[in-house]
Write the structure tokens for this entry.
Amino acid sequence: MRTAFGETFDVPAGYLNTASIGIPPGSVTTAMLDTVRRWGAGLDAPPVFDAHVDVGRAAFARLVGVDVARVAIGGAVSSLVGLVAASIPDGATVVVAEGEFTSVSYPFAVQAGRGVTVVAVPPDRLAERAAEADVVAVSVVQSADGRVADLDGLRAARAHGTTVVLDVTQAAGWLPLDLGWADAVAGGGYKWLLAPRGTAWLAVRPELELLPQAAGWYAGADRWGESIYGLPPRLAPDARALDTSPAWMCHVGAAASLGYLADLDAERVRAHCVGLADALRAAVGMEPAGSAIVSVQRPGAARRLAAAGVVAASRAGGARLAFHLYNTADDLDRAVDALCR
């Protein structure tokens, strides 16, 4: 058991795999166990869970720097990005980074039947090429190697009329964000946000007109009243119109984890995570990168890390290590010993 940033974490030594799945604080585990017990005893009615959805929605808004009225809930990033992809004009050109995580690129690529063209460009040229495209879609932090996007360049591209779609799944929770300028910001909960899988959010600018492709009762203006039955659709007047029905117990955990993270000093969290990651980079002869994710491209790196009890991932030919707020210098030393001995 570890204590970090005012919470306890039952995280094993050498766990450096948050980029695959985050470890929740003890309060999140307790909240989840309690709601499962209440479910088993028939103690909760469906409307009880709305409060948890509201807390998670508001916390996500704070974490990415937008008004809560702009945030919709969903179950996965790909389906939320798909709402954006399905709403862009026929024949649009979309620019993505080479090697982009496919939950960002696939929703646009499958629009080819109506003339949408997706072009993959080197990450260091993304902002430049974005200014020439109708849409740019990119992860703020790349899953494969932790590269941080040029947000200033993308913001400049938006000033030229490019629609900017961002995925914060590998960024929100450790990187301070102020993305109110972006057209759409999607994020999944089960990595750096330390929430159960099955929770995701999409922040959209009001002028970005999206068709609520999966509209149902939870998108209704009066979800427990007059909009639950019959026609015509009576959808919420804000981004809630894009909501899909929540996985209730997952949102109990998300409310606890995102609420906790949104209350932390974001710069302090960033300094902790990046400090450990850049120390690893220095130890293995890499330049600092300002990211909490490190990709070590050394033969046998993944095997040596696993043998030393370091939990990491193999991605894009490298051993991927991720440092979050519960990681320590001992985790760093264990990884360095494994890679450098």
In short: Residues 123 and 214 are 32 Å apart (CA to CA). The radius of gyration is 20 Å. The first strand starts at residue 2 and ends at 4. The chain has a mean pLDDT of 97.
